[in-house]
Amino acid sequence: MSLADTATLRTRVEEAGLLWGLVGLVAVLSLLPIGRLVVEGFAPGGQLSTTALGKVLASPATWTATWNSLVTAIAGTVLAVLIGGAVALIATLTDIRARNAFTFCFVLPLMIAPQVTALAWLQLFGPSSTLLKLIGLAPPLGSRNPLYSREGIILLLGIQYAPLVFLTLRAGLRALPKELIEAGLAAGAGPLTVLRTVVLPLMTPPLVAGIALCFVSCLGNFGIPAFLGIPGNFLVLPTLIYQRLAGLGPGVLSEVAILSLLIGAIAMAGILLQDFMMRRRDFRITTTSSAARPFELGRWRAPVEILLWTFAVLVLALPFLGLLTTSLIPAFGVPLNAATATLANYAYVLIEHAASKRAFVNSFLMSAGAALAIVLICVPLGYFLVWKKSRTLRLLNLAAELPYAMPGVVLAIAAILLFLRPIFGISLYNTIWIIVFAYLARFLVLGLRPVVSGYLQVDRTLEEAAQIAGAGLPRRLVTVIFPLVAPAAVAGALLIFLTAFNELTVSALLWSSGAETLGVVVFSFEQGGDSTYASALATITVLVTVGLMASTTLFAQRLHQGVLPWRD
After folding, report:
1. Integer distance in angstroms from the first to the last C-alpha of the chain?
2. Tens digit of each residue's pLDDT (9 = 90 or more) over 239-290
3. Would the pLDDT of 109 be above 80?
4. What is the pLDDT of residue 449?
């Protein structure tokens, strides 16, 4: 065998070994937990049984929670589409000023944990609102906070996920060829007519994708229904699962598995409906060009900008002020003034409270560790998905996306089942590592998408030259490929860290004593009536999130457009 044949064989062996290792890893993170969930629901103990299914279907609470989930998810999605769609059209197609700053502010609620959003809005309204007391607009004592309702949950879900619709629609609008718009204008049509007859029909795919993603996110959201629904006994499926598991323990795992599969089935129905709608028509654009010239608003530009920034202040600044003012008072309900203002709540959560201190360390280490591990997985995985295309690899890509497409509570229950009764003799149950496992599975796709985008922008010539020079695949990955895709990989790692740092949906079901996360501690403070401590801790997490997002300006110029969602 010649040296060339030996080198070729070595390359094939290295690629095959690495690829099958990645296949096994993705299978463990994605397919194995979902499979374990199905087995527990329909074959507990290894024998087929419909006992758990019968109990769940016979329970009135199941159907009440299912109806509540559907109503809040659908209504929240509609509200998010109205807000996010309108803002995307204005911010992308018109000549408004300070576009980057506004995009940053509009996307920020998506990067803030839902439970923090819920807490901030709760502190803004009601008779005990510190901010309303400060300006003399607090309602009478005894008044009910209007957010403790179905309508309050819908409002916050719509605000939380409007940026999802905004981002997906904006990506499509950026790719819209300018010839199509200019042809409509040249034919005598006005901007609104062009928008209605040209732009919106072509934007059906990204809009439908945004709707599906928003529906699944609303359906699986735990933080907002937990803060606003549990006090008023308004249960959705995620909070019903939480109460069942927290109140009755592992003995109800089969019933909880069925409830989780019910959420998953509803989510998958939404995704399949999206696919069905896309198959009915052909939305392909047969021409490409530079981006279209923005519509000039003329004398309407200033009023439109005022309207957009007013909205940003209402949904971002005011709730944060409500959170901040509550964190500065000694006890909930005490008016804020020069005599009562205090930093004692911050001192308590940062220095005195043991669980808070552990939560900071745990959340930081788990988020950073998950981000680093996912980058190490995604760089070689992206190599195969982009440069070694095949049908098997497309299936691998779908498997990697499955845990993120499913509601977080489904993955949490699946992880509990996988490690409570371990298949391979490895039990992570009741340890911090089960949360790390769930983070790796849940957020793998957040690291993969930017890396894939980075590969698509890289010229493969350098990698091929290194291969010809005799460098093996591991060496090429370390010395050639990783430096080329590093900016995109770092951006993906930052997205993972920001998402996991304040996460609650997964960790609310997986945490144990000593393995608390920031989301869990904030939730525990609020449930225990310590709103001032919860507000102080939530304020710190918001400041950390904003600081990390703002720090990306240091390397944003090196990234492909769209890798960082808050950068235009």
Report:
1. 54
2. 888 888 776 555 677 888 888 888 888 887 877 776 676 565 555 554 555 5
3. yes
4. 80
Return the C-alpha torsion angle 224, 420, 48, 58, nearest 10: -30
> What integer is the mean pLDDT of 188-216?
75
**Average pLDDT for residues 376-380, to the nearest whole number?**
89
The Cα–Cα gap between 24 and 505 comes to 26
Residues 474, 481: Cα–Cα separation, whole Å: 10
> Could you tell me which residue, 237 or 276, shows the higher pLDDT?
237
- Copy the structure tokens of residue 236: 């959705």
Mean pLDDT of 218-237: 88
DSSP secondary structure letter of residue 515: -
Which SS3 state, helix, strand or coil, does residue 291 take? strand
- Please say whether the beta carbons of 278 and 208 come within 8 A: yes
In the structure encoding, which two tokens stand for residue 330, read together? Answer: 């000694």
Instruction: State the Cα angle at 348 between 345 and 352, rounded to 5°.
Output: 175
Residue 343: burial class (beta carbons within 10 Å; 0-12, 13-18, 19+):
exposed
Q: Which of 213, 212, 206, 166 is nearest to 311 (CA)?
A: 166
Integer Cα distance of 408 and 417 in angstroms? 14
Helix (H, G, I), strand (E, B) or coil at 53: helix
CA gap 508, 412 in Å, rounded: 9
CA distance 56 to 80: 31
Backbone angles phi, psi at 94, to 5 degrees: -115, 175
CA distance 29 to 441: 5
Element spanning 347, H or E: helix 344-347
Residues with Cβ within 8 Å of 291's Cβ and at least 6 positions away in sequence, in order, are 174, 176, 178
Phi/psi zone of residue 514: left (φ > 0), alpha (ψ -120 to 50 degrees), beta?
left
Q: Scan for tokens 């089935």, then name that residue.
A: 265
- Judged on CB neighbours under 10 Å (0-12, 13-18, 19+), 271 is middle
Tokens of 426: 């490895």
Look over the chain and give the mean of its residue pLDDT values, rounded to a whole number: 81
Report residue 527 as tokens.
């449930």
Residue 529 CB neighbours (<10 A):
10
Q: What is the pTM of this model?
A: 0.83
**C-beta neighbour count of 283 within 10 angstroms:** 13
d(CA 518, CA 390): 41
**Run of H or E residues at 507:** helix 507-510
Q: Which helix (H) or strand (E) holds 206?
A: helix 204-220
The C-alpha angle 371, 491, 28, rounded to 5 degrees, equals 35
- Is residue 68 over pLDDT 90? yes
